[in-house]
Design brief:
Helix content: 25-40%
CATH architecture of the largest domain: Alpha-Beta Complex
Order of helices and strands: EEEHEEEEHEHEHEHEHEHEHHEHE
Number of helices: 10
CATH topology of the largest domain: Quinone Oxidoreductase, Chain A, domain 1
CATH superfamily of the largest domain: Medium-chain alcohol dehydrogenases, catalytic domain
Radius of gyration: 20 Å
Number of domains: 2
Pfam family, one: ADH_zinc_N
Number of strands: 15
Structural class: alpha/beta
Protein name: NADPH2:quinone reductase
Largest sheet: 7 strands, mixed
GO molecular function: oxidoreductase activity
Strand content: 25-35%
Length: about 325
């Protein structure tokens, strides 16, 4: 009789409510793969898109969502020589993390840094990797420049605040409530804008002496994009990170012309594939920042596997702050911690 495990399963692209925790066979690693006992897997906005068939990647059905994880290697496939049984690792695997065990290509593994716990490792790779790539590699943010972060209380937003501050920039955090802005302040934002009550463009201009922000980090899209683009300085850089609002904006391109602004796309996943050496360098920089206490991934909830489906639904409704970590090895329970 084959061994079994629990996993959150998506049988067909569609409503998040259709996801179910099921007992399934433990998968075996193929050539170039390892099997990881998943100790922690964190929730990201693409998890809500991928199960609905709205993401640019469509895994073969059935599959488990869960784009990043931390755990221990329990089996290795043919041809894997750089990794050993029992090694503690983290990975951005794209999907598969919301399960007690997951198959991960060996090329997508990183060692869990000494001094870092599993929850933090699972919460680090996508949001902090995206934000560091966006600010350092794409925008080339400089000390003394001003960064405006939209959706600043989300996972990418909080990571961008901490990384920008670590790079020596001044950070303006924009979010939709006083509670979310208080969290942004705790993570190092210098100035705050409540865009549910304040005019975003005018507040940015007031906070920058009419100059505007040199860099804008926008993981939200939607209605605020044009106002934020108008609030970007001469030769400023506008980072298109994602569309958590669900709306892909269409700002007038004359706004780029008028102040020689640059609109820059950020596709971290493909950048990792194209330049793995730079990705490894960035991850070492992030790990060092965490271990030294300069970077602090904010984990708002820790849930058993049974709570993953509802957390994905809340992520889709933009009701999540920081990072939610799922612990597949924990017994089912209803409470949030």
């Amino acid at each position: 009789m084959s061994a079994t495990m629990r996993a959150l399963i998506c049988h067909a692209f569609g409503p998040i409510a259709d996801l179910q925790v099921e007992t399934v066979p433990v998968p075996e690693p193929g050539p170039g793969e390892v099997r990881v006992r998943v100790e922690a897997a964190s929730l990201n906005f693409p998890d809500a898109l991928i199960v609905q068939g709205l993401y640019q990647v469509r895994p073969a059905l059935p599959f488990s969502p869960g784009a990043e994880l931390a755990g221990t290697i329990v089996a290795v496939g043919e041809g894997v020589s750089d990794w050993r049984l029992g090694q503690r690792v983290l990975s951005f695997c794209g999907h598969g993390g919301f399960a007690e065990q997951a198959i991960v290509p060996a090329a997508q593994l990183l060692p869990l840094p000494e001094g870092m716990d599993m929850d933090t490792g699972a919460a680090l790779v996508l949001t902090y990797g995206t934000s560091l790539h966006a600010l350092k590699d794409v925008a080339r943010l400089q000390p003394g420049e001003t960064l405006l972060v939209l959706g600043a209380a989300g996972g990418v937003g909080l990571a961008a605040i901490e990384i920008a501050r670590d790079l020596g920039a001044r950070v303006i955090a924009a979010a939709s409530s006083a509670e979310r802005l208080a969290l942004c302040r705790q993570h190092g934002a210098h100035e705050l804008i409540d865009y549910s009550r304040e005019d975003l463009r005018r507040r940015v201009e007031a906070l920058t002496g009419g100059q505007g922000a040199q860099v804008v980090c926008d993981p939200v899209g939607g209605a605020l994009t044009e106002a934020a683009l108008r609030a970007t300085a001469w030769r400023g850089r506008y980072l298109v990170v994602g569309f958590a609002s669900g709306e892909i904006p269409r700002p007038p391109l004359n706004l780029a012309l008028l102040k020689e602004r640059q609109i820059l796309g950020v596709f971290w996943g493909d950048a990792v594939r194209r330049d793995p050496a730079q990705h490894a360098l960035n991850m070492r920089q992030l790990a060092e920042g965490v271990v030294q206490g300069r970077l602090n991934p904010f984990i708002s909830e820790r849930l058993p596997l049974q709570g993953a489906r509802d957390a994905i639904a809340r992520m889709a409704a933009r009701q999540v702050v920081g990072k939610v970590v799922v612990r597949p090895q924990e017994p089912a329970g209803d409470g949030r911690r």
